[in-house]
Write a structure and sequence with these properties.
Blueprint lengths: L1 H28 L1 H38 L4 H32 L5 H6 L1 H13 L1 H17 L3 H24 L8 H25 L15 H32 L4 H17 L1 H19 L3 H28 L1 H6 L7 H17 L3 H16 L3 H26 L4 H23 L19
Helix pairs in contact: 1-2, 1-7, 1-10, 1-11, 2-3, 2-5, 2-6, 2-9, 2-10, 2-11, 3-5, 3-6, 5-8, 6-8, 7-8, 9-16, 10-14, 11-12, 11-15, 12-14, 12-15, 14-17, 15-16, 15-17, 16-17
Length: 451
Amino acid sequence: MFRLAWPLVAIQLLQVAYNVGDTFWLGALSENAVGALSLAFPLIFLLISVGGGFTAAGAILIAQHTGADSGEDALVAGQTISFVTLVAVVLAVVGYFVTDPLLALLPADAETAALIVPLAADYMRLFMLGVPFVFGFFVFVSLMRGYGNTRAPMRVMVVSVVINLALDPLLIFGVGPFPGLGIQGAAVATVFSRMVATALGLYLLLGGGVGPAISRSDLVPRPEYVREITRIGVPTALEQSMTSLAMVTLTAMVASFPPTVVAAYGLGNRLISLALLPAMGLGQATDTIVGKNLGAGKPERAERATWVASVAIAGVMAAAGLAAFAFPEPIVSVFMTADTEGAARTITYGSTYLRFVAAMFVFMGVLQVILGAFRGAGNTKTALAFSVVTLWVARVPATYYLVFVADWGTTGIWTAVVIGDVVGAIAAVAWFTRGTWKQAIVEEAEPAATE
C-alpha cells in the first residue's frame, strides 16, 4: 500500500505545485490577484467536477477487473478515455460562456466586485478553454492508479510542473519576448503545461507499454461499458459537484467581506490543500488496494489496509497540524510577498485562519482515507453521503449561522471549517465500522480448466 501511495502523494504534491506556483507569483503581483484565484477556483471546480466522477469510475473498474483477473482492463480504460474526452469538450464550451454569469451571481462586497471579480473572469475564461487537457491528464492518472502503476504518471507530472513553474513568472510579469499578461499569464502557463502532460500520458497509454494494452478498437464507445462507467461515476460526480457547489456557496459568503479577507480565505485553502496531500495520496492508494482485494475476494484484507492507512495518516496530519499552529505567519508570508498594506492585512487574516484549522488536520486526513475505502469498494453513493454531511449538513449551515446570525465575523468562517471536517470524519468512521461496504462489483475470474 505504501509503495503504491508514495508516488500518489508525490503526484498530489506536484498537482498542488501548479496552484502554489500561481499563488506565489500572483502574491508578488498583488493581493487582488490572489483574491481572484479565491473566487475563480471554486467555480472552476464546480464546472469540471462532473467529468471528475467518470475518471474515478475508470480507476475503480480497472482496479477491480485487475484484482478479479477478468482480462477486460484495457477495454475499460479505452471506454473511459473516449467518454471522458467527450464530456470534457462539452464542459469547456459551456464553462467559457457561463463564466461571467456565474461570477455575477456572487453577492460581492463593492470593493471586491470592482477589484477582484474582473480578474477572476479573465483567469476563468482562459482556464476553461484548456479543460480537455486538464481532463486528459486526470484520465491518465486515474487509469494508471487503478492498474497499479503510479510511477509513470508521477514522472509525467514532474515534466508538466516544471514547465508551469518556468512559464509562470515569464507570462505574469513579462520577461524578454514574453508579454506581461498578469493573472491571464498564470492561466496560459497552466493550460500549456497540462497540454504537454496529456500528450505524454496518451502516448504512454496507447503505445508506451506501461499500463493496460489499449488498442484502437477499445476506444470505440460500447453502450454496456458506458452505462457501467456512468453508474459508478455519477455518484462520484455528484459528490464532487456537491463539494464544489458547497465551496461556491461558502465563497459567496466570504465574498461579502473586503478583498483582504477573500484573499486570506483563498490563500488559507491553498495551504490546507498542501497539508492534505499525504491524506489524498494515501486515500487514493486505499481506493486501489480495497478495489483489488475485494475483486480478489479478500474483504478482511481490504479492511485491515484501511485501518493501517488511517492510523498512519493520523500521525502525519498531527505533525502537520502542530507545525501550522506553531508557525502560521511565516508559512503564510511565503505566499504573500507584495509590499502593500493590503498584503500585510491578508497575512494577518491568513495566519489566524491557519491556526484555527490546524485543530482539524487529523480528522481531515482520516476522512480522506475512509472515503477512499468506500470508493474502492464501488460504494460511491456512500462517499457522496459523507461529503454531503461534511459540507452541507455541518460546514455551510455553521458558516451562515456564525457569520450572519451570531455575528462572529471572520472568526465564524474559520470555526465553521473545523466543524465540518470533524463532524464528517466521526460520521464516516462510525459507518465504516458497520462493514456493509465489503462487496465487490465484479466477479472473480474462474480458474482455468486443467486436463
